[in-house]
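To whoever is on call:

I kicked off a structure prediction for a single chain this morning and the downstream step that reads the tokens threw a length-mismatch warning. I double-checked the sequence; it's 362 residues and nothing unusual in it as far as I can see. Pasting both halves so you can look.
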Amino acid sequence: MPATRFFGNLSQQKTQATHLGKKSVHYVDVGGNGDCGFRAITAALISKILFENRNSPELAALLHEHFKYFPDQKPRLALATPVEQLRWMTESSRMATSVQSLAYTIRQLTVDEMVAHPENYRGAFIGVENMPTSPEAMRQASTWIDETAIAAAAKVTGFPIDVRVVTEGRELPMRLRYPAKPQTATSPLVIQLQDKHYIPGVRNAAQFHTVKSAPVRTLEPKQLERHDPELKDILAKIKAEDDRILKHFEDIKTRLTAAVEADGATKEVLLNIYIEGLKKGDYLQGYVGFEHGSEHFFKVLRDSRSDLQVVRSEFENPNKHFTTQLVHAIARAVSINQLDGNEVFDKVERALDKRVGAAQIM
């Protein structure tokens, strides 16, 4: 985690909110034990919608799902718009309950997404300590799910999420961005991550400062019929995809190495392909878990596959070693959809044709 430069100390206010300059956004802790991430997303979403006072298909869809779990929370307001419904649900006496229950709904939708595509959210099921987590456990409000869940939540709610990492009271120059869909026009929900605790950024701090201290209610959601697969089947699906990624990685690495040996893929060509490709790549198009770079994503796979590491011999030419590193980096990026494989090899072939043409002229 980069820590070479810090922003200034965050000024603390009586509401336990943090002021972010001209945008008048405050960070307010809304509590949560295991569900702080979903609570933070919910509070940030409520704040954004009430502040902008704008209806959207995303809000309508979310409330539609929410009222399936909590039909008694649906306002009895004739012809009320989604914003009007949400405004009624979050009036002062109902805010804490709505944050808690909407967080539950978003959690369920998030788990639905991860269960449907476990190969894209492997971190949620495997975990940093390699202790598998079942869908049943994930659906419980007390279960912590790693940052993978934030990406899934952005997708199912339709609202992009911007996570700002904070340590020891200072914001790091590091942000994890989770888009809802490519090129979405809406501004992101902003939340902070402080020592595995998420805190939402809100415009109207006064509406949220009592949520954390409010008595925690025992939620009684309607039990909907589900068909979650067995954990063993989910893990098998993840393993199959891991094996496919590794095979694809090896194929790409072999082809790129051959191109280097044919003198078509020089160090300069490879570096240009890698840098220019990542500039326009959609980091969450496929797999979630490489917000810190593809090296981070490949760590678990690499631990048991020594051939994924690039080890430099003390006798190896530095330029050759750098080229080998680029081959590995591009192969990783292609295998997890960070780079388009067809574009990569088109550029390599054009470079080779150019060199052949130049040689013939000479």
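Update from on-call: the warning came from a stale cache, not from the record. Cleared it. Sanity check on the structure: The longest strand covers residues 170-178.
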